Each structure stands twice: as structure tokens, then as C-alpha cells.
Amino acid sequence: MESKNSFLIYTSWRSFFELLEEPELIKELLYTMFDIAEGKETAVTNNRVKSALKAIEPKMREDLEAYEARCEKNRKAAQKRWGNPSDMHSHADAMQLDGDTDNDTDSDTDTESDNDTDIDMSVMSGSGAPSVADVMEFSRNHNLDMSKEDAKEFIDYYFTDRKGAINGEPIKDWRKLVKSWSEHTLVVSDSILGPDHEGYEAFLRLPINLQDRVVREQTKFGGRNITKATAMAITACRRAV
């Protein structure tokens, strides 16, 4: 397993650094902490540094073990997913597994900064589906990543498959659903990470928080399905490297 590229420093450890006082001793303590995090051998000679490490090292080891356990859990989950590509729900079935977000509170109060008031109220009421042009215009006005194909899928999903209702209640404001569409739209992670062994290796190079997110979504949606939002986060992370 690759060495961890970061570790936690707790504010409660400040007192140990203050007691060392001398810059050279503080430097030795810090370097030793880096060695521990990177899995290297340590050789501390100063007794004051040893005393500080006696208090710090157990917690560092505990954090490292927890991190390794997460990595191992994610690795096994990835082996299962990439080793069993046939374990896929269809796109529509996977989306049906997802919870509806229209019951979530939305902090957007649609103030004068929005252009929503130009939209036909009969469409907003759920009595009819918005057009692709409606969805595209709203997305552009709110800087949302929505292609023409996404807009059509959005309309089909909520107004064809669900007939303009969720849990028997008419959709009152489709605009809120547009804002969360990237959390509903599913893509196969192969298109982002690559197929089979290539995708598995790319997954292992992701930061642990993104690994956790991918595993959660693949477990939820089946196979190698992830949300578009997660796919975008992976792409942004890989570009930043």
C-alpha cells in the first residue's frame, strides 16, 4: 500500500511543541512525525522529543490504522465492482433507487437575482412538463451544467416516467429538481476512470474521500454507476494533480 500523503495534527499537541522551545528540537519532532506518517523508520535521540512523541505517536498510529482500514475496505469494494462488470442496474432502475431530493430544504429563495418569474406558472405547477428549451434556459441562467440530452432525460424522468408527480404529489417547482439533477444523473465510472484494470488502478489513486464517495454510490446504484456530480469531482481532482 502506498504511504499516506497527509496526516492530522491536533490543536491539543501545541503544548508539546511549546515545551520543546528550541527550533532544532521542534524540527526533529516534526520530521519524526512525517517519518511515522510515511511508514519510515524513526531514530530519536533527544529525551524531550521522545517524551513528546510518547504522547503524539499512539494517536498518529491509530489514525494511520483507521486510514489503512478505509483503504482496504475501498480496495475490496473496487475489486468487486471492477471484477464483476455485469453487476449493473439499468440507468433507469439505478435512478429509481435514489431518494427524491425535492423534499430537501432549498435555501434558494428565488429573489430578484433569478429570472424564474419569466417562466409560465402553469408549467411550474406540474400541470405540464417544461420544454427542453425551458430547462436549458433555466440551467444557463443559473450556471448549471446541463446538455440538451440531459434536459431531455430530466423531462422524461420526472414528467414521462413519473407523470409529473413524486410519491403521488404533483411536482410544484421543477426548477429545484433541475438544480439537483447532477446528483440524480448517473454515469458509468468507466467513462471517467477507464474500464476494468485501468479503472481499478485509477480508483486507487483517488483521494480517500473520493474513494469513499465512489464506493457509496456504486453500492447504492449497482455496478460501476456513479452520479454525474461525483464524476465531475473526479475530473476536477485529476486535472488538479
What does this entry look like structurally?
The chain is mainly alpha-helical and 241 residues long. It contains 13 helices and 4 strands. Residues 85-127 have low confidence and may be disordered.
The parts where pLDDT drops under 50 for at least 5 residues are 85-127
Could you report the average pLDDT, rounded to the nearest whole number?
78
Biggest sheet strand line-up:
1-2
Number of helices: 13
- From the alpha carbons, calculate the radius of gyration and give it in angstroms: 25 Å
Distance between the termini: 20 Å
Taken from the alpha-carbon principal axes, the silhouette is elongated
Largest sheet: 2 strands, antiparallel
Total strand segments: 4
Report strand %: under 5%
Helix proportion: 55-70%
Q: Pairing-aware structural class of the strands and helices? A: mainly alpha
List keywords for this structure.
single chain, two-stranded antiparallel sheet, 13 helices, 4 strands, elongated
Topology:
Blueprint: H1 14-20, H2 23-37, H3 47-83, H4 91-97, H5 121-124, H6 132-141, H7 148-161, E1 165-166, E2 169-170, H8 174-179, H9 181-184, E3 186-188, H10 190-193, H11 196-204, H12 208-221, E4 225-227, H13 228-240
Antiparallel strand pairs: 1-2, 3-4
Helix pairs in contact: 2-3, 3-11, 3-12, 6-7
